[in-house]
Amino acid sequence: MFQLPSVAVVILNWNGKHYLQQFLPSVLSTTYGNCRVIVADNASTDDSVSFLQQQFPLVEIIHLNKNYGFANGYNKALKRVEAEYFLLLNSDVEVTPGWLQPMVELLEQNSSFAACQPKILSYNNKQLFEYAGACGGWIDSFGYPFSRGRVFDVCEQDKGQYNNVEEVFWASGAAFLVRSSVFEKFGGFDAYFFAHQEEIDLCWRMQGAGYHIFCCPQSVVYHVGGGTLPKGHSRKTFLNFRNNQIMLWKNLPGSQKWWKVPFRIMLDWLSGLKGLLSGDGGYLRSILKGHWAFAMWVVKRKTNTHRTKKVKLEKLNGVYNGNIAWQHFVKEKDTFSGIVKN
């Protein structure tokens, strides 16, 4: 008798009782027949754990002894989980009953298919794609991440325009299905990232080794977004700019990183100056702090445990050979299809 591959849906929680109360029932309504639901608690200081124990006694709980962030929180939790697939799910995501099976069936087609994500729509406006991944993540030649359905802060209306299964550069950490064997092979996420862009870094490393990343739009979820660090938060800005620079330095071949990283720093400063002129000096300060932290990382971390084959970006899937900042801010293009000509 055919046995469905085992899937562990793991929700990392930090002071998110209100999200668990709101969205965990939809996860527990998943119709996939070989699925466990686990909440990994990052040392919450609210009553998340006691709430789970009282209201959802069948949900497994992994207790972490401090807040390790998204990256290392998942690394530590998943070492205690056995399943063929891990489904990393944000606590502020509403899923639909049949959401899981299409993604598993897609990855089961070939052992080189390592990870995928569903179509991610906005919970607060279900006609719009959601910022964190939309319909599959791309990257441009200078390391700017964007998505099918989202360019910078502009989220498109979902009209079915991206309903094809397609290889992408990165799958969103908001709803990230990955082969457990591949996740473990690559040492999981880079713990130093703490949060933001660790999934892009991991997908880059996996692609460099010959694995493939997909978006599976036949699966649909709805994401609130900004649940832990809201948009515009100085810590979020710092992490995004720091981690993006580290990711470029780690993964670009030497022939590219020596000029692309300084060029990106210059573009980041221009973005910060634009913010300063509009009255947001904190934005520039967060960028400068992020760049300083990146410089210190380069000085102190001459080696790292996440080595992988360095492949030119243009040889990978889901890469736009250009600069989306130029396309968006100068040429005023604000849709994925308007920039990436299929």
Mean pLDDT: 93
**Distance N to C terminus:** 42 Å
Helical fraction: 25-40%
Radius of gyration over all CA atoms, rounded: 19 Å
Provide the β-strand percentage band.
15-25%
What is the strand tally? 14
- Global morphology: globular
Number of helices: 11
Secondary structure class reads alpha/beta
N-to-C series of helices and strands: EHEHEHEEHEEEEEEEHHEHHHEHH
Spans of at least 5 consecutive residues with low confidence = none
Biggest pleated-sheet summary: 9 strands, mixed
Give a written overview of the molecule:
The protein is α/β, with parallel strands linked by helices. Helices cover 37% and strands 20% of the residues. It has eleven helices and 14 strands. Strands 1, 2, 3, 4, 5, 6, 11, 12 and 13 form a nine-stranded mixed sheet that branches. The protein has a three-stranded mixed sheet with strand order 8-7-14, with no helix packed on it. α7 packs antiparallel against α8 (254-277), α7 (234-251) runs parallel beside α9 (281-300) and α8 runs antiparallel to α9 (281-300). The protein is globular, with a radius of gyration of 19 Å.
Q: Strands, helices and their partners?
A:
Layout: E1 7-13, H1 17-28, E2 35-41, H2 48-55, E3 60-63, H3 69-78, E4 85-89, E5 93-95, H4 100-107, E6 113-122, E7 137-140, E8 145-147, E9 150-151, E10 154-155, E11 166-167, E12 175-179, H5 180-185, H6 198-208, E13 212-223, H7 234-251, H8 254-277, H9 281-300, E14 319-320, H10 324-330, H11 336-339
Parallel strand pairs: 1-2, 1-4, 2-3, 6-13, 7-14
Antiparallel strand pairs: 4-12, 5-13, 6-12, 7-8, 9-10, 11-13
